[in-house]
């Protein structure tokens, strides 16, 4: 799928851009400050620390607005149709005469997707990176022998140009199919992280973050698990999973239905994001088992459920955080809520549009590679099923919002995380000029990276099994056998062909006196 132009969706050109959504189909009665309400954009206004960079096919985007009253969020206009990734699958569900019309009637243009203003987006970081200052300033300790940190800083003084280039590049890693397969390590993944974390000629940490459509666990739990698998520290401060940007929605909705994931893990995720009143489908089934007639409800599930009288509660929004473990129950409850009067179970709205509560999905992947030989259905497939059911039952299209790759909001959020991580690593809060996305899925990692103006590298260790390059969404920097090949090619381009992908203690430590190179370095 190539990049979309806004005019394809009935959007005005940048010069014509107005501050209201183009014939927005959304006439719902949401809370006044709902994130789906269009905010006036502020072309040319100060946008804080967010860097303005070239943006592939999203290049004409409306700038981010940071209003004084917006607390910890920034508004990101959803310029790209959330339908785009599923359009090939959706045509037979559309009653509209043309794709263009269908998209205009179904997309969320003009809606503002909130994302957290992410500087120090989480205080749950599991990993600290002691800097050289910490090493030097330990009171009462004997004089320190030259450590790698000290030697590295001296080497870096000598190779100032390479250091500058190393701080002007960053990697964004997809996880599944690039660094790991589920819980299984891809060996080149560990090798790459070793190198980027300092096992290189300069002993320098080359900035990198992780951007996955994975979901279903709190960030800390997942980064701890990944740190073990990859045998490298991964901080929550450099980690984005599909629902991470959705923490911003906690400011807008009080009572939410959270769907998907194992057991009650997504309730835990929502709690950590600050959602106040969280309901999961099992709470509803425990209150009224007849709502899901085919459900076999175990004692364990009943014990973990928090039933109450849901006929007296309005649910403000639906958040699909992760893959449904029980399509029949989850779809039934979601459709019940979407058809209800303002989220009150047991009611059916007279007008299915104006009284409908909003629904959000954390990502739109149709398929996900697993141990099974044929990829399994993921959230995108679940969503398409829901859309079809909703349309069949109400006669109207379901408007919805999708986060995750390749949606714009997620890439804007990634920019924030890169800048913040640069600050932690190198004391410079900015996005490097040369960002490389390494991914295995052309329809997610590569299209998103291309549209955002990043360099993109496609690896052959995951979803992509094709020829020279993906014909629909070709990787701009190339196709590589694995993540090591991709990262080293990018480093050679930015740091020179002579860049060495190994730290050599002996080569730089004058105490060991066995290298001519050491003479260039004063201790
Ligand atoms: O599609 C779900 C998830 O497994 C994809 O993960 O890391 O490849 O974005 P990732
Ligand atoms: Mg992947």
UniProtKB/TrEMBL annotation:
Pfam families: Hydrolase_6, Hydrolase_like. Residues 1-61 are annotated as: Disordered. Residues 24-44 have a biased composition (Basic and acidic residues). GO terms for molecular function: hydrolase activity. It comes from the Eukaryota. Keywords: Hydrolase. InterPro entries: CDP-alcohol_PTase-I (IPR050324), HAD-like_sf (IPR036412), HAD-SF_hydro_IIA (IPR006357), HAD-SF_hydro_IIA_CECR5 (IPR006353), HAD_sf (IPR023214). GO terms for biological process: glycerophospholipid biosynthetic process. One of its GO terms (cellular component) is mitochondrion. NCBIfam families: CECR5, HAD-SF-IIA. This is HAD-superfamily hydrolase. It comes from Canariomyces notabilis.
């Amino acid at each position: 799928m190539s990049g979309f132009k806004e005019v394809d969706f009935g959007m005005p050109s940048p010069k014509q851009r107005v501050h209201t959504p183009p014939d927005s189909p959304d006439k719902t009665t949401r809370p006044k400050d709902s994130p789906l309400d269009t905010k006036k954009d502020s072309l040319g206004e100060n946008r804080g620390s967010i860097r303005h960079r070239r943006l592939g096919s999203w290049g004409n985007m409306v700038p981010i607005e940071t209003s004084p009253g917006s607390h910890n969020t920034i508004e990101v206009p959803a310029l790209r149709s959330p339908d785009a990734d599923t359009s090939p699958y959706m045509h037979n569900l559309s009653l509209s005469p043309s794709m263009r019309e269908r998209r205009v009637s179904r997309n969320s243009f003009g809606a503002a997707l909130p994302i957290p203003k992410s500087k120090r987006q989480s205080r749950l970081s599991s990993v600290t990176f002691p800097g050289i200052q910490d090493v030097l300033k330990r009171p009462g300790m004997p004089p320190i022998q030259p450590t790698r940190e000290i030697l590295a800083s001296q080497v870096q003084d000598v190779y100032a140009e390479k250091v500058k280039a190393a701080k002007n590049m960053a990697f964004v890693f997809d996880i599944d199919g690039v660094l790991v397969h589920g819980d299984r390590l891809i060996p080149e993944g560990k090798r790459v992280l070793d190198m980027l974390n300092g096992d290189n000629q300069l002993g320098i940490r080359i900035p990198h973050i992780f951007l996955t459509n994975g979901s279903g666990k709190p960030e800390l739990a997942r980064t701890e698990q990944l740190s073990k698998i990859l045998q490298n520290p991964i901080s929550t401060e450099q980690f984005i999973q599909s629902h991470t940007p959705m923490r911003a929605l906690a400011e807008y909705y009080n009572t939410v239905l959270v769907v998907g994931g194992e057991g009650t893990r997504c309730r835990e995720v929502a709690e950590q994001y600050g959602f106040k009143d969280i309901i999961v489908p099992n709470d509803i089934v425990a209150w009224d088992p007849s709502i899901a007639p085919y459900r076999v409800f175990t004692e364990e599930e009943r014990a973990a459920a928090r039933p109450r009288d849901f006929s007296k509660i309005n649910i403000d929004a639906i958040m699909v955080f992760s893959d449904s473990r029980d399509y029949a129950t989850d779809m039934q409850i979601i459709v019940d809520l979407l058809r209800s009067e303002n989220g009150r179970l047991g009611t059916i709205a007279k007008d299915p549009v104006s009284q409908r509560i909003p629904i959000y999905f954390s990502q739109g992947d149709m398929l996900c590679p697993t141990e099974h030989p044929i990829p399994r259905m993921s959230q995108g497939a679940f969503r398409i099923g829901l859309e079809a059911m909703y349309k069949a039952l109400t006669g109207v299209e379901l408007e919805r919002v999708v986060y995750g790759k390749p949606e714009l909001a997620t890439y804007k959020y990634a920019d924030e995380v890169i800048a913040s991580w640069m600050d932690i690593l190198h004391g410079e809060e900015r996005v490097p000029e040369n960002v490389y996305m390494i991914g295995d899925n052309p329809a997610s990692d590569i299209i998103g990276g291309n549209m955002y103006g990043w360099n993109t590298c496609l690896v052959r260790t995951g979803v992509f099994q094709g020829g020279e390059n993906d014909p629909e969404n070709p990787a701009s920097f190339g196709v590589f056998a694995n993540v090591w090949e991709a990262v080293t090619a990018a480093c050679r381009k930015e740091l020179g062909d002579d860049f060495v992908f190994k730290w050599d203690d002996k080569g730089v430590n004058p105490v060991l006196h066995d290298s001519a190179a050491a003479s260039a370095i004063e201790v």
